[in-house]
Amino acid sequence: MKHKIACTGIKPTGVPHIGNYFGAIKPALALAEEYQTRYFIADYHAINSMRDPEELRLRTYDVAATWLACGLDPEKSLVYRQSQVPETFDLTLILMAFTAKGLMNRAHAYKAMVDQNLQNGKDPDDGINMGLFTYPVLMAADILLFDTDVVPVGRDQQQHLEMTADIAQAVNANYGKPLLTVPVPLIQENTHTVIGLDGRKMSKSYHNTIPLFLPAKQMRKLIMKIVTNSQTIEESKDPDSCNVFSLYRLFASAEQTEEMRKLYLAGGMGWGQAKQALFEIMDNQLSDFRTRYNDLIANRDYIDQILAEGSARARELAVQKVGYLKKEIGVA
Ligand code: ADP
Question: Which of 17, 20, 197 is the best mutation target for the ligand 1 pocket, counting ligand atoms within 8 Å of the beta carbon and taking the most?
Fold first, then answer.
């Protein structure tokens, strides 16, 4: 019997990408033997920015197919849609009461938008909805609902996890007992922030991603667009400041990485050659996943069934937890 619980989610705001894979999907799936695992599609989080219903449905299938293609076994792990577990929103309201507004003011996604507005001479809250502002509370509910012990995420989510812990501790302190399990993030040392085509963090929000399951030709085309400096072929190049190398090492073995490092330092290798090497190693490693993904995405009925079953099982757990909490706080 596995006692510890791991939980993580992905927003269906775009096609899952290499950053999602190394930051969250791969480490999360690696926990399946040791932990009770819950993986969800954060569809209510998505509507903060995604308002096209058809697109949202499409991306929900993408995220589900990605989890399954990457190795999620629905017999061993729970996979579900956030929106199908409405107890999440009961818990969100309870947590709201324990969340200082000042804490939300410091959330980096919100702060980044305020800063951008100020830079552009706009009202600080221009275009910011309450969904975005309170995002960390909904995320805390996603996690706390299942008594989660660890949350495999990328570094970008560390602050939100700290907020989840703060909120849980505020609840526990008020009622004088551990009503909520305080979770810890599980952040991979080497893959905590995967860099995108433009050198910033790879993110659907920045439109700088390499989707995991692009057809080979399109993937190659994108890889050729990765921003590099203007050094000539002959010059020795610094692997550690190179966007191409930072992606290459995610896929390469230690020996392959060392080989590539030597090629960079020696000079004589142009960016086209480095990018071609990246394409080849990625295509090699992703092609089986891609085939599985394409089969799955063509079979929506199967995905619907998996999500319906997973959501029903998740809901049973959620009903119990929220029922218990309601009694403890005096609303039942
Ligand atoms: P995005 O930023 O592309 O919208 P999500 O917010 O849906 O991605 O994140 C889903 C998971 O993937 C989270 O655990 C997040 O930390 C992780 N993740 C997203 N982008 C990266 C990245 N560039 N490097 C590492 N992990 C990432």
Answer: 20
Give the per-residue pLDDT at 243. Answer: 95
Distance 295 CA to ligand 1 centre (A): 25
Spatial neighbors of 172 by CB under 8 A, at least 6 apart, are: 178, 179, 180, 182
**Residues in the ligand 1 pocket, defined by CB under 6 Å:** 8, 10-11, 13, 19-20, 22-24, 153-154, 156-157, 193-194, 201-205
Predicted confidence (pLDDT) at residue 204 exceeds the cutoff of 90: no
The yes-or-no verdict on residue 105 having pLDDT over 80 is yes
Question: If you average pLDDT over residues 189-202, what whole number do you get?
Answer: 89
Give the Cα separation of 25 and 18 in Å (integer): 10
C-alpha distances (whole Å) from 158 to each of 88, 154, 166 are 21, 7, 13
Please, which residues bridge with residue 36 across strands? 5
Answer whether 188's CB lies under 8 Å from 27's CB: yes
